[in-house]
C-alpha cells in the first residue's frame, strides 16, 4: 500500500517541500529511516537525524527551518506528533478495512448487524446480539446472548464477550480480553465452605473505551460494572464486579481493582497497582506504579508506595529509608557513648 507525499499532505492538511510524487509504503523511526519509508520529527533532541535519515518523507513542524541541505521530502504541519498519530490511525483504518462474513462462523437467526461489518471465521454471535455499522469482529471471537456493540467497534481475535454486555461506539477490544465473566462472589456456609453468589448484572462500556489484551472485566453481582467514556485499559488488568471507572481514566498493565470501588474521571494509574474494594477514588488522581491503595482518595492526590502515601511525603521518607542502617548505627554509637559517660 503506497502513498505519495501529496496524498499524505492532503490527509494531514500540510504543505510539501520537495517531491510531491515520491511514494512510501512503510513507517520508520527517524534514525532508522530508509528509502520508501515515512518518518517524523517532533522532539528537538532528534533534529540531527533529519540531515542523515534515508527516509523518503518526513513530517515536521511548520516552524522547522533546516540549517543544511536535506534530501528527504518534508511535509510541514502544525503539530508533527499529532499529525503522525492521525496518519497511523488512518493507516490502520485502511489496513483493517475488511468487510463480509467469513465461513465457518455461527450467527444466531435472532442476531442483527449493520452495514460494512466484518465477521471473521469461527466467530460466534448468540441470540439477540445487536451489532452496529462498520464493526470488525475477528476470527474466534465469542459474543454471548443479548450483547450489543455500537458503530465502529473492533473486537480482535479470541476475545470473549459474555451475555448482556453493552459496548458503545468506537471501542476497541484486544485479543484475549474477557468481558462479563462472573465476579468473585462467594459466601461461607455453616460448615466453613464457600458457595457461589450468582452474578446477575452486566458490564457496560461507554463510547471510545479501549480494552487491552488479556484484560478481564467482571459482570456485576447486581446492576452494572461500568467503564465511562474514553477509559483506556492496558493489557492484563483485572476489573472486579460493580467497579465504576470515570471518563478518560487510563490504567497501566497488571493493575487489579477489587469489587465495588469507584474511580473518578481523568485519573492516571500506573502498572501493578492494587486497589481494595468498596472505596472511592476522586477525580484527576495519579497513582505511581506498584502502589497499594487501601483507603478513600480525594481529588487531585498523587500517591506512591504500599500502603500508598502522598507522593511528596513518600519521596522525602525514602531518603531516610535508604539511610536507615547508617542511622541505626549512629544511634547505637551514641547509646554506647552515653552509657560510657555515665560509668
TrEMBL record:
Residues 22-89 form the UDP-3-O-[3-hydroxymyristoyl] glucosamine N-acyltransferase non-repeat region domain. Keywords: Acyltransferase, Lipid A biosynthesis, Lipid biosynthesis, Lipid metabolism, Repeat, Transferase. Catalyzes the N-acylation of UDP-3-O-acylglucosamine using 3-hydroxyacyl-ACP as the acyl donor. Is involved in the biosynthesis of lipid A, a phosphorylated glycolipid that anchors the lipopolysaccharide to the outer membrane of the cell. The gene is lpxD. The keyword Nucleus does not apply. GO terms for cellular component: membrane. It holds the Pfam family Hexapep. It catalyses: a UDP-3-O-[(3R)-3-hydroxyacyl]-alpha-D-glucosamine + a (3R)-hydroxyacyl-[ACP] = a UDP-2-N,3-O-bis[(3R)-3-hydroxyacyl]-alpha-D-glucosamine + holo-[ACP] + H(+). Its EC number is 2.3.1.191. One of its GO terms (molecular function) is N-acyltransferase activity. Pathway: Bacterial outer membrane biogenesis; LPS lipid A biosynthesis. Homotrimer. HAMAP family: LpxD. Belongs to the transferase hexapeptide repeat family. LpxD subfamily. This is UDP-3-O-acylglucosamine N-acyltransferase. SUPFAM superfamilies: Trimeric LpxA-like enzymes (SSF51161). One of its GO terms (biological process) is lipid A biosynthetic process. The keyword Signal does not apply. The active site is at residue 241.
Amino acid at each position: 500500500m503506497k502513498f505519495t507525499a501529496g496524498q499524505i499532505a492532503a490527509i494531514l492538511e500540510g504543505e510539501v517541500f520537495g517531491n510531491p510524487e515520491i511514494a512510501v509504503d512503510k513507517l520508520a523511526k527517524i534514525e532508522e529511516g530508509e528509502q520508501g519509508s515515512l518518518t517524523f520529527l517532533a522532539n528537538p533532541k532528534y533534529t540531527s537525524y533529519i540531515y542523515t535519515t534515508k527516509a523518503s518523507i518526513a513530517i515536521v513542524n511548520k516552524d522547522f527551518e533546516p540549517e543544511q541541505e536535506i534530501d528527504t521530502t518534508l511535509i510541514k504541519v502544525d503539530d508533527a506528533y499529532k499529525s503522525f498519530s492521525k496518519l497511523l490511525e488512518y493507516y490502520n483504518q485502511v489496513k483493517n478495512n475488511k468487510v463480509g462474513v467469513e465461513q465457518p462462523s455461527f450467527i444466531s437467526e435472532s442476531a442483527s448487524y449493520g452495514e460494512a461489518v466484518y465477521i471473521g471465521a469461527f466467530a460466534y454471535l448468540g441470540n439477540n446480539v445487536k451489532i452496529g455499522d462498520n464493526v470488525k469482529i475477528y476470527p474466534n471471537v465469542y459474543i454471548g446472548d443479548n450483547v450489543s456493540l455500537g458503530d465502529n467497534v473492533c473486537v480482535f481475535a479470541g476475545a470473549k464477550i459474555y451475555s448482556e454486555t453493552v459496548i458503545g461506539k468506537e471501542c476497541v477490544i484486544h485479543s484475549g480480553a474477557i468481558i462479563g465473566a462472573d465476579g468473585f462472589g462467594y459466601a461461607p456456609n455453616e460448615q466453613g465452605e464457600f458457595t457461589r453468589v450468582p452474578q446477575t448484572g452486566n458490564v457496560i462500556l461507554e463510547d471510545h473505551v479501549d480494552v487491552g489484551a488479556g484484560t478481564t472485566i467482571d459482570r456485576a453481582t447486581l446492576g452494572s460494572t461500568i467503564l465511562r467514556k474514553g477509559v483506556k485499559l492496558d493489557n492484563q488488568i483485572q476489573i472486579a464486579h460493580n467497579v465504576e471507572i470515570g471518563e478518560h481514566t487510563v490504567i497501566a498493565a497488571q493493575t487489579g481493582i477489587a469489587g465495588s470501588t469507584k474511580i473518578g474521571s481523568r485519573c492516571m494509574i500506573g502498572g501493578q497497582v492494587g486497589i481494595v474494594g468498596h472505596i472511592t477514588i476522586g477525580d484527576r488522581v495519579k497513582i505511581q506504579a506498584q502502589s497499594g491503595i487501601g483507603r478513600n482518595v480525594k481529588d487531585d492526590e498523587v500517591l506512591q508506595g504500599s500502603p500508598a502515601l502522598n507522593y511528596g511525603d513518600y519521596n522525602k521518607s525514602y531518603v531516610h529509608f535508604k539511610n536507615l542502617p547508617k542511622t541505626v548505627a549512629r544511634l547505637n554509637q551514641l547509646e554506647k557513648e552515653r552509657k560510657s559517660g555515665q560509668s
